[in-house]
Write a structure and sequence with these properties.
Helix content of chain A: 55-70%
CATH class of the domain at 1-80 and 158-170 and 192-255 in chain B: Alpha Beta
Helix content of chain B: 40-55%
Number of strands of chain A: 10
Number of helices of chain B: 11
CATH superfamily of the largest domain in chain A: MetI-like
CATH class of the largest domain in chain A: Mainly Alpha
Shape of chain B: globular
Oligomer: heterodimer
Distance between the termini of chain A: 32 Å
Largest sheet of chain A: 5 strands, mixed
Structural class of chain A: alpha/beta
Strand content of chain B: 15-25%
CATH topology of the domain at 1-80 and 158-170 and 192-255 in chain B: Rossmann fold
Strand content of chain A: 5-15%
CATH superfamily of the domain at 1-80 and 158-170 and 192-255 in chain B: P-loop containing nucleotide triphosphate hydrolases
Distance between the termini of chain B: 55 Å
Number of helices of chain A: 23
Number of strands of chain B: 10
Largest interface: A-B, 17 and 21 residues
Largest sheet of chain B: 6 strands, mixed
Shape of chain A: globular
Strand order of the largest sheet of chain A: 7-6-8-5-9
Number of domains of chain A: 3
Radius of gyration of chain A: 27 Å
Chain lengths: 527, 261
């Protein structure tokens, strides 16, 4: 039950983000494609070009289009890249609808329009657009449903949406959250679709009553969707708009070190990161901060967000920064690396390292214990001779990283077949024998639960992966944030982290609950 | 209003071939001239050069002695009534809005348009209270064409262009509407150019007939003259057609009108 209550607590913000993103992308998308579509019906050459470009955009997978916006905008994350990608995506159906709708009008109608003495503009406004309206509206409705659906994919580029539920649920095996996100995204799509239909009917029948209904509906949706979240953004909002617990919390928080500060915690897309983000949120809220989260971001996107102060706090891993951000091909010793990474981050980007959290979440190759015994495999070095017969599953990010290149080279694993899949599923896949090996995370609770063996790495192909707590340059400036989070340094052992991950991945606790349990365990382990 | 076409030529391929070639004709005030000929003879193209839906490649069109090439196309079309092949009512507009479309384009006041619409609907024998708010699809073919006439007459044009106006109607409705239109034309005294491929229609309605073939005028005259002695064999054959048909029909039922046999 508390799981469901947690989901509802996030709903106003996520619904508002989703609504704002979808509606603004649709409005701008229509504002671009309708005039271009009309112009294209007058100029065949423009028509070919416009439809070709719009069609080309559509062939880019929606997830890739979103991801591409980040580097194209110089590493910007959040609303803007998601908005631009969704706007581009909405162009084809509206453009296509406009062009088809107008060109398919019976030519006697356009000749009649000219024959009675209409100018081109009058013919368009009085005859062609009204006659093409059903087809254009059909295009707008398609775009509406697409955009609302695609907006769920904007979570990884840092724009909060109902997709947060879906990604969280997928990563933490919280299927209730997935269903929750799908339900509200679908409901939003249906409501907006109906509304477009209502607007069309109102204009077609010139019915003031329907127009009123459509207008009221539109305002109700926008206000209803944005108000609860807006109330949180406006500090002076009246108490009627803010939940009582929040008021109490705000009263209680005054006088605390971070009172009233708005901080955004970023996280990558796997269980441990979700739990740590929640834990950090608890700490910061206890210190009086107003906390937002940007979950499920890729490593480099998250780092860009931190560097540019879009995200203020994140947890990363020394080896990941070393290989993926600093692009150093060869790993070094564990302590040395921590010092090197912290120095480089501050020097190059002004990012402050609060310190290591105390556990290491290394990439490691794991296989079923019984299968390893059958094949006589104890370390990665034993894999070389049988490499062509093996299939390895891992998160898609891993196979593109320097670590994989290195492991492959050092241990001669070139013949291994790779299968990228979401980390949620790879543990089950190796347990059930669908793949031979996985690129496990060493803190994952399922290593023990599924009786997997972590293969040793005698040639140290993998770098150390100490979890480190990072602050953005702006957030670190006054030192209060650093002081608040300092107690977390070296407070989470490998064992504690693994139990917390196991709580979610194996025992079905919610992320919030696992974070609270982790917090309690940290406190009791200090005593 | 007088209308003159002077050596009109229309080419769609930059002057290599002509769909309409050197057509000249003059129409007197209040006269109804029919352009006849087979499909593709250039009669509709010739008609469209008058309101500049087609721009002539050569020659000029004069209305009241003024060259239409110097006039604004849109303004010219608003001053000429035009009845379309296939009626061409706007399906998304009510009957009243269809009839009032030209006055609205001319910027008339709301009440004046409403009065004019009611007047016109009565003129074409439709009950304004019954049809004004209805949509074109709710009317019969004959009623729709009456609305088509009303729309063409809305701004009180002194020149009407009619392109197969009765083509989409059943024979009985067609006969009734033809005679009504003829009465209307006598009453309102507008000049009219009628395009038709139906010889009977041309012979019964027109003051003068122009016969076209392959873009050229091959015959011209008042109906009775053309029927009696046409020089061109093609024209003669065309003119004889209605009479021959009538003879064939008469033969079937016997000359005296009794049953054969």
């Amino acid at each position: 039950m508390s799981n469901l209550a947690d989901r509802f607590a996030e709903l106003p913000d996520l619904l508002a983000g989703h609504l704002l993103l979808s509606v603004s992308a649709l409005v701008i998308g229509i504002a671009i494609s309708l005039p271009v579509g009309i112009a294209a019906t007058r100029r065949p050459r423009l028509r070919g070009a416009a439809l070709a470009v719009a069609g080309l955009i559509q062939t880019v997978p929606s997830m890739a289009l979103l991801a591409l916006m980040v580097p194209l905008l110089g590493g910007m994350i959040g609303f803007v890249p998601a908005f631009i990608a969704l706007t581009l995506y909405s162009v084809l159906p509206v453009l296509g609808g406009t062009v088809t709708g107008i060109l398919e009008i019976d030519p006697t109608m356009t000749e009649a329009a000219r024959g009675v003495g209409m100018t081109d503009r009058q013919s368009l406004r009085l005859v062609e657009l009204p006659l093409a309206a059903p087809v254009i509206i059909a295009g707008i409705r398609t775009a509406t449903v697409w955009v609302v659906g695609m907006a769920t994919l904007s979570t990884p580029v840092g724009a909060p949406s109902l997709g947060n539920y879906i990604f969280l649920g997928l990563q933490t095996r919280n299927w209730l959250a997935v269903v929750f996100g799908c339900f509200f995204a679908a409901a939003l799509a249906v409501v907006l679709d109906r509304l477009v239909l209502l607007i069309e009917r109102a204009t077609r029948r010139r019915s003031p009553r329907l127009a009123w209904a459509a207008g009221v509906g539109l305002i109700a949706i926008i206000v209803g969707g944005l108000l609860p979240a807006a109330a949180r953004w406006i500090p002076d909002a009246g108490p009627t708009l803010v939940s009582e617990s929040r008021v109490n919390r705000e009263i209680a928080s005054s006088g605390r070190p971070l009172a009233g500060r708005e901080l955004v915690i970023g996280s990558k897309g796997f269980t441990e990161q979700y739990i740590l983000a929640e834990l950090l949120g608890l700490e910061l809220e206890a210190a009086g901060a107003v906390v937002g989260t940007r979950p499920n971001m890729g490593s480099t996107i998250l780092f860009d967000a931190l560097r540019s102060n879009t995200v203020h706090v994140s947890v990363d891993y020394s080896g990941t920064i070393w290989a993926a951000i600093m692009k150093r091909p060869r790993p070094i010793g564990r302590t040395e690396m921590l010092i090197e990474v912290a120095g480089w981050l501050e020097r190059e980007h002004g990012v402050i390292t609060v310190g290591p959290l105390g556990f290491e979440n290394a990439y490691a190759l794991a296989m079923r214990r019984d299968r390893a015994a059958d094949l006589g495999i104890r370390s990665i070095a034993d894999l070389g001779p049988i490499a062509p017969r093996l299939t390895i599953a891992g998160d898609p990010e891993f196979f593109g990283r320097l670590e994989w290149t290195r492991v492959r080279e050092i241990y001669g694993l070139d013949g291994v077949r790779t299968r990228g899949m979401d980390s949620t599923f790879m543990y089950g896949a190796v347990r059930d024998g669908a793949v031979d090996l996985i690129t496990a995370y060493s803190t994952d609770g399922r290593i023990d639960a599924f009786d997997l063996e972590v293969l040793s790495d005698p040639k140290q192909a993998f770098p150390p992966y100490d979890a480190v707590l990072l602050l953005s340059p702006e957030a670190a400036r006054d030192g209060k944030l650093e002081a608040t989070l300092k107690p977390l340094v070296n407070s989470i052992s490998n064992h504690l982290m693994r139990s917390a991950n196991r709580d979610v991945d194996v025992d079905g606790f919610s992320v919030e609950m696992a974070a609270k349990r982790l917090r309690d365990r940290i406190v009791s382990s200090r005593r | 209003m007088t209308l003159e076409l002077l050596h009109i030529g229309v080419s769609y391929d930059g002057g290599r071939t002509f769909a309409v070639d050197d057509v000249s004709l003059a129409v007197e005030q209040g006269e109804l001239v029919a352009l006849v000929g087979e499909s593709g003879c250039g009669k509709t193209t010739t008609l469209k050069t008058i309101n500049r839906l087609v721009e002539p490649t050569r020659g000029r069109v004069k209305i009241e002695g003024e060259d239409t090439a110097g006039r604004d196309r849109v303004e010219l079309r608003r001053s000429i009534g035009y009845v379309f092949q296939g009626i061409g009512l706007f399906p998304h507009l009510s009957i009243a809005d269809n009839v009032g479309v030209v006055p609205r384009l001319l910027g008339w006041e709301h009440e004046r348009i409403a009065r004019r619409v009611a007047e016109l609907l009565e003129l074409v024998r439709l009950d304004p209270t019954e049809v004004a708010t209805r949509m074109p699809a709710e009317l019969s073919g004959g009623q729709q064409q009456r609305v088509g006439f009303a729309r063409a007459l809305a701004a009180g044009p002194s020149l009407m262009l009619l392109d197969e106006p009765f083509g989409a109607l059943d024979p009985i409705t067609r006969d009734g509407l033809r005679s009504e239109f003829a009465d209307l034309q006598k009453e309102l005294r507008f000049t009219a150019v009628l395009v038709t491929h139906d010889m009977t229609e041309a012979l019964l309605m027109a003051d003068r007939i122009i016969v076209m073939r392959e873009g050229l005028i091959v015959g011209e005259g008042v109906p009775s003259d053309l029927m009696r002695h046409a020089e061109d064999p093609h024209v003669a054959r065309l003119m004889a057609w209605p009479a021959r048909q009538a003879e064939q029909l008469a033969a079937m039922v016997g000359d005296d009108g009794s049953e054969p046999g």
